[in-house]
Design brief:
The structure is a homodimer of 343-residue chains. The first copy, chain A, is of the alpha/beta class and 343 residues long. Chain A has helices at 6-13, 17-24, 32-44, 51-58, 74-89, 103-113, 133-144, 168-181, 197-212, 231-241, 252-264, 283-286, 298-313, and strands at 63-68, 93-98, 120-123, 149-152, 162-166, 187-191, 222-224, 246-249, 274-278, 292-295, 324-327, 330-332. The first copy, chain A, is elongated and about 90 Å long. Chain A binds a DNA duplex (30 and 30 nucleotides) through helix 2 and helix 4.
Chain lengths: 343, 343
DNA sequence: ATTATTTACGAAATCGCTTTCGAGAAATCC
DNA sequence: GGATTTCTCGAAAGCGATTTCGTAAATAAT
């Protein structure tokens, strides 16, 4: 049994291809008798129209490309989940590509996707920070070519398109404020995403919360870390030098690891040191004590992206006017922070 | 600026479409002069050949469909990661579809994918258990239509195709044996995947290990649980009735939750009760104590699937002869189990 | 000078499908 | 019975590329 085409069916009944096509579309142009036999034959032999040919004719593929830096990151998986959910509901499938934080890969991926394989793109660009000029051009091409584009989380200001971002400044503020409210005096900030704008925004929120309490910002309390760094080693300085009683960790895994180190050193969480992490995922709920986290509502972000994009694809949105949707975060209070004093 | 086609370029230079096509392919048939100007124009205007049209002529899409039950499950994400990795290396992109454990969705997805949108399929079928007859037909169609297919993890015996599976029986055996070796006498098994074959296989391994030690299998120690069940409530019976000193949990989240409950009830892990979980993911490493887990090497499974599939697509494998690759698990010993006595 | 061979390009087929248009035959009308 | 409408179907164009084949002109060979 081999893939059936219209032509095959046509020659089987000695009719023309157009007749078969119309018959299968139940066109009134075809007599009931002929329609019936063709439809039956098609069904019996599991005929399915070739998608690629259809895509060509319709100049649409009913699929959207999703480009994310890393699929092992729970946040992105959540976003992907949200995207896939509404895409599916609205009849689209998704082509997912991970860039592994590599600019080159991202460029190649975009190159590939923007040549007709998808009707639109949702991307969280690794280039949001270290944007080279050529890469910027690359993305600009996409919007120039009228390919609907939605950027999320790691967006580029220079690109004019729909965006869905997290209110990271407010999140940093909210988290810091909570620590202060629950009695923390000296709050360190562990930053595993030091090169990103979202990292800077969160630090901005941190600073604002400190300022509000007239606490001087201490540069030394902000600790940039790279993936390869020995967290334990780096933290030891701070822990020895400063009298830390609160820590903000800018992603989940760092929060978890930091807490592990703190506990191993004999501190009690939250009584000696309270911790708040960013990007609520699977881990934080199950570590001991359960971590208080900033949730970014990844799935919601994904849904929003997908809806925006599909609206754009189907020309439901107003052409030319792009929106930036800011998704608020939530503070999920668990046991790595003290309770707010009732007073 | 709008999408450029060969025709556009052709009419711009008043040449034929074929000339342009050849020029862009640097064909010797075209004079250097003409080639140069066409190539320059194409580059300046960011011409990119339409993928869909190419797919049609080449009768290949250079993309593979991946169908998984759930993307929020770390195991599947790992597999996806592995697939994406080698697919990418070998020049394929992936269309990922999640079925949410819904048979209907899976059917629809397969229907969609098997009509030319992809060159091959990798699937972990939710129907591996509750396989209705029509669904089976559905999947059979795929192999009948010569669409290369690789099934993994949740495979269907009735389907003749390449498969990558986990040695679940051996895994169950290995885990149980380790618990016995470290002094456990009464081992409960918490089964959150009671309807699946892999669940049964793991239980098979559990039984074999018990038998080897001449321990009678006690039906009551095997606890099936459903997603909606109150685990704490269900566990209370066992904990009260039996003198449990070891627990096997058939997935990660259940292992973590079970340990939480055990600890909350005042048992010490691993001294009072040791725990081994299945499907090593992100959680187990960071909970306290860190969980001893059976790792299924998701990423490796993904890589294997992708390589097999692409070999098949590119006719590197022998047609007609399908292989089933059994991937061995590893026991990752952490702190939720006692150490093997030296003797 | 005649023939043979490149060179350089265009026409046309093809991939599989949709859709418009045209046209013969049958059915309806006046 | 002739004109018109309705049925039913096929031919052909088009989607955007590749590729085979044909051919005129230019060059080379005899």
């Amino acid at each position: 049994m081999i893939k059936l085409t219209l032509k095959d069916i046509a020659s089987h009944f000695s009719v023309s291809v157009s007749t078969v096509s119309k018959a299968l579309h139940d066109s009134h142009e075809i007599s009931g008798e002929v329609k019936k036999k063709i439809q039956k034959f098609a069904k019996d032999n599991h005929y399915r129209p070739n998608k690629v040919a259809l895509n060509l004719v319709n100049r649409s593929t009913k699929s959207i490309g999703v480009v994310i830096p890393n699929i092992l990151n729970y946040f992105f998986v959540q976003v992907l989940y949200g995207i896939e959910k509404v895409a599916n509901e609205r009849g689209y499938s998704i082509i997912s590509c991970v860039t592994d934080h590599s600019l080159k890969k991202e460029t190649m991926t975009l190159e590939m996707l923007s040549s007709g394989s998808v009707d639109g793109l949702i991307i969280s660009s690794v280039a949001s920070e270290r944007q080279t000029k050529t890469h910027l051009e690359n993305i600009k091409d996409i919007v120039d070519y009228q390919i609907p584009l939605v950027m999320f989380d790691r967006v580029m200001d220079a690109i004019d398109c729909d965006k869905v971002i997290v209110d990271d400044l407010e999140a940093g503020y909210k988290a810091t404020k909570y620590l202060l409210d629950t009695g923390c005096k000296t709050i360190a900030l562990v930053n595993p995403i030091c090169k990103t704008k979202i990292g800077r925004l969160r630090i901005g929120g941190y600073k604002r919360a400190l300022k509000e309490r007239n606490i001087d910002f201490d540069e030394k309390l902000v600790i940039p870390i790279e993936p390869k760094d020995d967290l334990d080693f780096i933290l030891s300085f701070i822990l020895n030098d400063k009298n830390i009683d609160g820590i903000l960790a800018l992603d989940e895994i760092t929060a978890v690891k930091t807490m592990g180190i703190i506990k191993a050193r004999g501190y009690h969480v939250p009584n000696d040191i309270a911790i708040i992490g960013f990007t609520n995922g699977q881990l934080s709920k199950y570590v001991t004590p359960a971590l208080t986290m900033i949730s970014q509502h990844g799935s919601y972000i994904g849904e929003t992206c997908a809806n925006r994009l599909i609206d754009r694809i189907e020309s439901i949105s107003t052409p030319g006017v792009y929106e930036t949707k800011v998704v608020k975060t939530s503070l999920i209070v668990r046991d790595s922070t003290r309770k707010i004093p009732l007073g």
